[in-house]
Amino acid sequence: MRKPMPSTSKNMRVIPAILCLLLAAAGANSSAAEAANSGWPTNRPAQLRQQAAGTAMLAATSTAGGRIVAVGDHGVILLSDDGKRYRQARSVPTRTMLTSVIFIDRNTGWAAGHDGVVLKTADGGEHWNLLRQQYGQEQPILSIWFGDADKGLAVGLFGMALGTSDGGATWTEIKLSNGDAADRHLYRIVATASGTLLIMAEAGAVFRSEDGGKHWDVIDSGEKGSLWSAAAFSENGASTVVAVGMRGHIIRSADDGKSWQPVASGTTQSLTDITQLSGRELAAGGMGGTMLRSTDGGRHFTLEHSAGDEPITALLKAPGGKGALLFSLAGVVAAP
């Protein structure tokens, strides 16, 4: 296993923009696992916080009903029905850092994060149940995805990949590849317009599956740095994907993730997330509050403005299509 890197600043908490904290966490030993059995600190329900909207947020999504659901540190889950006013979920059974969230309809969703935690809700995010945990072993999940109520995937550090066919009640380890790519950090799962699954990974690798995750190919994107997020959409009938990552690098695929071309970003700030706002309009954000926008499906990007000094950790199309909602280590950053 590679040597863990030290954590030296507040910005190192961002997932996955700075991995130092996670890499250090991955080095936890069996004594930590034993401590978990006697009461791991995060193995308690999340507390209701007076300034919950100021909690570090790491991922956000919207339900089929239009509700905004954002997850972050201390097990905090924020809900908003208008993108302006936020409140905490009524009950969350963990205080661990949550890094990913997805919904398949207006009520059913999953969240995941540190300690291998997987949560599920059946009421639009109001209440959550604990499906999986490995408190003390520190195997963080960085991305979770479900295609329907049963089949899902979760990925994380050092090539960790898990699959479920019963809605997350049980999980099985999946081996995506052999050789040098086998232990690469896996950052984001994306489903393309054609149904292909892509996993954005370390060292520019893209893992690709056309059969729902049963078999995977490793695609060399030509990028040398880590790819942290991607937006997938259909453009003129073509399954298109735009991915972002380290040092402001952006790559684009117009053939369902089979081949990739570099796109100029105009910044060297690492980009942590990207989202589709409308047909050909995309927004990307990253370190130092960097914000980029494209109006031609990701072929060109314009550096817009800084959303403050805190790293942008998640972007989401605002209700009514009025720009993007921004989330950061300082919590909810902006609303239309």
From TrEMBL:
GO terms for biological process, alphabetical: photosynthesis
Signal peptide: 1-35
Domain Photosynthesis system II assembly factor Ycf48/Hcf136-like per the UniProt entry, residue ranges: 90-268
Entries under InterPro entries matching the protein: PSII_CF48-like_dom, WD40/YVTN_repeat-like_dom_sf
A Pfam match: PSII_BNR
Top-rank lineage group of the source organism: Bacteria
Keywords assigned: Photosynthesis, Photosystem II, Signal
Keyword Cell membrane: no
One GO CC term, this protein: photosystem II
Protein name as catalogued: BNR/Asp-box repeat protein
